Amino acid sequence: MKNSDPQGYAARKNPSGGGLRLFHKLVENFLPPLVVVVFVLLFWQFVIPLGVIPGVRAQYLGTPSGIVAAALDLVREGYGGYSLRQHVTASIFRTATGFFIAALVGVPLGIFLGFNKRLGAFLLPIFGFLRPIPALAFIPIVVIWFGIGEFAKIFVIFMTAFLYILLGAVSGVRSVPHDYFRLSENYRLPATSVLFRVVLPAAMPEIFVSLRTAMALSWAVVVASELIAAQTGLGYLISSASQVYAIDKVYVGVALIGIIGVA
Question: If 0-12 CB within 10 Å is exposed, 13-18 middle and 19+ buried, where does residue 196 land?
């Protein structure tokens, strides 16, 4: 019988050839972005400090070596009387608390409003109006309502996540094909069975998309929430360091927000 997989056969016959192809593939995928990153870092380290960017003082742009030194200093000494771990933990705690409360409230309420179109007709326009409003616009109102404690910070995150989760759940329920409901009527399923066996499985993909979006937004909003008289958190670190022109520490805070957000 003729071999239908000559390449695979050749790779098994000559393992070094397969490893060499894998090496070339890794080089093709990772070498170009690595070269770009190295070039940018070298340019930033040695050229930008010469003042080649007009209108901006070179000392305000920082350097990669200064950022590394600032990161090591933050790890050793902390900032504002708290360790770097405490700042990171405070931001994660606020984000997780606001997000999970929003999910616990938003998903069931969104499913209910999507299922009950009469009640949804009254409430959904209000939530739809609030969703595009940025979190920064809520901060003065939240401070007046709740003061400057932890609850106010978590509430800003909760509001942002809640609106996206709620409207995503409503959209997921209302995108369920009408034929599914006709089929459930043919089987004479009770309302609870329709909800749990028909609506939820069909709406769950869109609900999870809204949860993922809300989680990313919650982590982005933590910086804004920590502007409310915070003494810990990455948002506080960035804001406080920028006020004393500690630009390298600002970069470290921004990088940590990005790394944790990706993780």
Answer: exposed
Please give the Cα distance from 55 to 212 (Å, whole number).
40
Residue 171 has pLDDT above 80, yes or no: yes
* CA atoms of 74 and 188, how far apart (whole Å): 64
Ramachandran region of residue 55, left (φ > 0), alpha (ψ -120 to 50) or beta?
left
pLDDT digits (tens, 9 = 90+) for 46-74: 877 777 677 667 777 778 888 899 899 99
What's the mean per-residue pLDDT of the chain?
82
> Distance between CA 171 and CA 198 in Å, rounded?
15
* CA 225 vs CA 51, 77, 220, 222: distances in Å: 35, 25, 10, 5
- What confidence tier does 16 reach under pLDDT thresholds 50, 70, 90? low
Q: What angle do CA 127, 130, 132 make, to 5 degrees?
A: 120
Q: Give the C-alpha distances (Å, rounded to integers) separating 15 from 6, 12, 24, 28, 143.
A: 14, 6, 14, 20, 66
